[in-house]
Sequence to fold (426 residues):
Amino acid sequence: MDTCGLIAEYNPLHRGHQRQLSDLRDRIGKDAGIVICMSGPFCQQGVPALLDKGVRAELALRAGADLVLELPQTFATDSAERFAEGAIETLLATGVVRSLAYGTEYPDKIDTIKALGAFFAEESPEFRSKLKEELRTGLSYAEARSNAAARWIEDADTLLQSPNTILSIEYEKAFMRLLKDDIVLPTYALPLFNKEEWSSRNVRAIVEQRFDRECGLLLPENYWPLLNELLPILPSPSTAAVMRAAIEGRGLVTTYALARHTLLSPLLRDIDQLKTIRGMQGGLAERVVNVLADTTFDHVITSRYEKAPSELTSAQIIATRVFPTSRVRRALLSVALNIRSDDVALTEAKPHYIRVLGFTKRGQRLLSFMRHTSELPVITIASQFKNLVSDEAKRQAQLDLFAQSLWNALAGLSCNGEIQRIPISV
Fold:
């Protein structure tokens, strides 16, 4: 069976994602399989998933996917490079994925995307020298990298300004590094449909603006306004899932709720301990401690209310040109998850298992093939984690379980719910 892999977060799944899956189906054929490698409870920009991963997996399956796998949490919340490496490694390890698809702001520039992937896969000494030169001017790493690459690759500076295309380049780079014996697998560059309106970030902003910040709930007078705002952006199943969780007051997590929890950590007041956390190096730990030293959470939030009502977190206060908001969020999330920079299993090791979140009938056939082709243990229920052998595998599983417990606690769900989770069948 021809099978295409796609990496996603679906936080939450909107109409653009729905059209993207439909477009991919048209390209690969109605009999081909689509395997999604999806983030779990927390996502790459350092934000929580709005909805539970099981709900998001079911939405993906109903939108056209066949098999949904979970990207281990350590990769899901790391840099674009490690996020891509973990996801590509997971898809290739299934033994059934024969091609890759990704969304990009520049689908007509797939040749340049591939060229940049190859360029970064084998960084030349000349490029590294130019990168250091750009960094000495005070630019952020992303800006310096973009400027340096533009010297060798035409349009590199343009493509490296767009978040989805940055990830696309990282996927191609990971492909170059991980494919064995000079194997070449085809890739499909998918367009982003109506990106300005159909955006997961917009959805989360809309939801959070409607929540009452004092009680952390959606009040009845906001039910209809929220519904009317979501309907043009989300497919009906996604709209129903968000509204159900919001009205019930459980099963949904906002960035505000995560920020309140994270700012309770004593690590944020201990500079020596904070420096050991993943992502807090290079002066960020000092920046965090200085900003938060004499302030309260409410002061941090209200001080930015007029400027950024949709994302009221301490990350925006801490962020600078050198420390972009997304990096700050990931570092703060590492505080909440206690991911330390010297924890090799979480910062350097490859994925050690494949966690299955859901499947269709076609996906179930793919899963039966994977029992024979997968290079990694296939996990369908959490109790199978105990069969993992290596310490690195156990550590990655431990983080996955802890992260889900934290998400469940913030969502008002049972912290032990992961033990009872079984794959969704559609």
